[in-house]
Records
---
Amino acid sequence: MSAHTIECQGSGGTPPSLRRSSMGCMVAVVLVAACTTGGDSDGSTDRDTGPIPGLARCELVSPNEEIHCPYHPLQTTDDLVYLDLSTGAIRTGSVSRPDASAGAVLFDPFPELGWGPGATSISPDGERALTARGSDGCSSLDCSFGRLTPWLAEHLENDPEDPSDDTWRHVNLTRRGLGRNVELHGWTTWLHEDLALFNALVRPDDSGWITRQEDNTTQIYAVRLDGEVPRVEPFAETQLWRDNCLTGRVSAQPATGGCFDGQRVSFVRRCYDEPHTPSAWAWHNSRNVDGTGGACVEGAPIFEVPVLRTYVVELDRACVPTRSFEDLAPVREPPDGPVERQLGVVPEWGDMLSSISPDGRWVAFATNMGDPATPADGCAGFRMNLTDSANPMSGNATRRTTVCALDASLRCTGTPTLLGAERTPPESTPLPTFVVLSGGEMTVVHGREWAVPGLPTLRDLMRVDFETGPDARVPLEFARTAIAGQAIYLR
């Protein structure tokens, strides 16, 4: 793992630590030490936007396994959940109200109880959520050696006559059938209120961790909530599980009451048995895109990396994919020019971090890109989007969001739209999510990351009304210090 820091917003803040996977695929950025700031307000009286409650309000029920916190009801008009970097809270907001100064608190932070939050997804009934959480500095199996783990939050009503005593119960799913020697790759999604999906790498509790790229074979897991206790198990083993492939972000059309015929799921994948062609493999840490010229970072290995592609599959009403992976075609073949092959510190390239729209008509993904001004420089990605402002070779290239409409064969129609950037060099625009505006229009919200020596770091969320144009940006005032935005689809 590699640790990186950013500056807290406001006075008196403690810099949080941010962590990413170092084994070849970006995982959710995790806040593991909350900054402390004063309160904020958007001028309304019915939203909990005041100072973050003290950590004493959360109760440790079982170390590394279960924590209870005060219940903050989900605002039914909110359509985006995100991690507020200035406080460490999970908040919600409405992208139809971009000028609101703050979102509503959903989950209080509890870093002093050992766990910091990352990306969150909310069930279609608003009663549950999945959050990526990491325990910074952990060196034991009990807390998964500090790697990201999936946590389920459930609303406990307690006394029905007293709504003020309701609770969010946070449960570590590594103790619910998944295993503790695990790394969640950050992203979760909901098929319906009783079935969620995530991608993770799981090893036996008594084995060591991976050391080779080709051992990084994350797969899709299901969280089934139709019984008294959550059950975690592999999802669609016959159709989608492949031992020689890494599976990236999974995103699903939402439903209630079960799956429906034709329900669509997007996922990202690269496979290590990929035919060895120039369009399918790229060199990492090489000065030249053909693997020659020496290393960008001396002492680090030079090796080839297979391309990431985005796929869409349809399910039947039993939540089973109607086709196997070998029968699927990617939504497009990722561009393989020299700029797209300029990898950064994380060895990955292609189309990644995909999201499907709630109506299943659109898909968005983030494509690795280096510096268009220096296409022949294989090291350009290491100088862009720095993860350590003191290290000019700590960059992770950029992830530029692209949107396309899907045809009947689940492939992109026409030329996909690359959403614009407003900085030089271009900022990274990762983790797209589709949101339906109050008027029914479809929009995309993506993250923005930009760091160059001597200038303030940018980490926020941006709305783009892509049907108007690739540069139809709408800043979200409430998400000026936010990451890991995911749409809320209440049904």
---
Amino acid sequence: MKRLYRRQNPFLVLLVVAAFITLTIVVAVFSARRKNQAQQSSSQRIAELEEKERHHKLLLREIAELSRTRGKNEAALPGVFVLYPIARDEDTLDRLLSKYTIVVAQLINEKS
């Protein structure tokens, strides 16, 4: 019976195994470095968003992003305080309007 394979050079086999191990280590190192950079940029982004949150300058998508990173499914959006009374019926409206004074005036002189 004929041999179907030839005897391989042990040096060549060792070289291929060494190349494979080196390639695996290089891929693992680059992957770890990339993941570390992503985590650093993520933590920097979170710090930036928290700083903006302290100054109440977050955009809607930033509020959602910050809530997501905190593991929340909901976000509380800042609102505007109502500077005028809300009347639910006519009697309440009459009572609230009695506390206000309306002045109708005409501009005489303009100065800037």
---
Amino acid sequence: MIPGVRHTELVILAAIGLMVPALPALFDGALSPTAALVRFAIALVLCWACGAVLEGLIDTYGRQARQRQLEERLRQLRAAHDVPLDPHGTERRGGRPPVGG
């Protein structure tokens, strides 16, 4: 299976950017159009592969960061709702004894 990238326009722009140094040779006739197309195809494959790897890394670390934030938030919510009970089963707040006790 070929890994995909979400931003194909960036991959194409990067491949075009890699081809910019070859443009003068192409226009001067020192580089044939066939050779230029082969070079562009190679640049496109390289940029696609690098984009897929980079996107995979970013997705992996982003997923881990979101999971860690979720766990931290759940821990904070549990700590905020963890109110100790006195022996009568009522909530004890601020260290004061329950009324009538």
